[in-house]
Amino acid sequence: MTRAQMQTPQYLQQRRKFAAAFLAFIFILAAVGTTEAGKKEKPEKKVKKSDCGEWQWSVCVPTSGDCGLGTREGTRTGAECKQTMKTQRCKIPCNWKKQFGAECKYQFQAWGECDLNTALKTRTGSLKRALHNADCQKTVTISKPCGKLTKSKPQESKKKKKEGKKQEKMLD
Predict the structure, then answer these.
(1) Using CA atoms, how far apart are residues 139 and 148, in angstroms rounded to an integer?
(2) 32 near 26, Cβ under 8 Å?
(3) Least crowded by CB within 10 Å, which of 56, 65, 87, 172?
(4) Is the CB of residue 81 less than 8 Å from the CB of residue 75?
(5) Residue-wise pLDDT tens digits, 9-65
(6) Within 95-172, where are the H helices?
(7) CA distance 3 to 63
(8) How many C-beta atoms lie closer than 10 Å to residue 60's C-beta?
(9) Rounded distance, CA 77 to CA 51, Å?
């Protein structure tokens, strides 16, 4: 296009229409963008800050016996708490050492040598797992009697015993 053609009134009018359409398009984009941004910026629900304290749980009490299924009581404090007490189901494994608390599990080392003065052997265990934030000792020590201190007679193998019985039957 030449410079003379660019100066004609028709060209200038087209150019103004294009500029107006372009500005309208930009305005529409800006309007849509702010409405969508307004949707995203919805005020979130107000989080109610509870003045209720943390739940404090009692130890698990088995329903029957000293292990298996049971319940524990939970309590919390607070002026506007809807619930201040509740009961929760729990389980005490039956293979855990009850001596150190039914909710504490320990990993034990091998039994030590027999102490001839006390006739006991001991071993220590380190805390492996505590159920429901139980108050458990980090390490524990247990002892048990050494058992028989005299050497027992070596037993014959089962195979030799069977062969001896077969020979006795044949002789009869």
Answers:
(1) 28
(2) no
(3) 172
(4) no
(5) 888 888 889 888 888 888 888 887 766 655 555 555 554 556 788 888 888 888 888
(6) 158-171
(7) 100
(8) 22
(9) 8
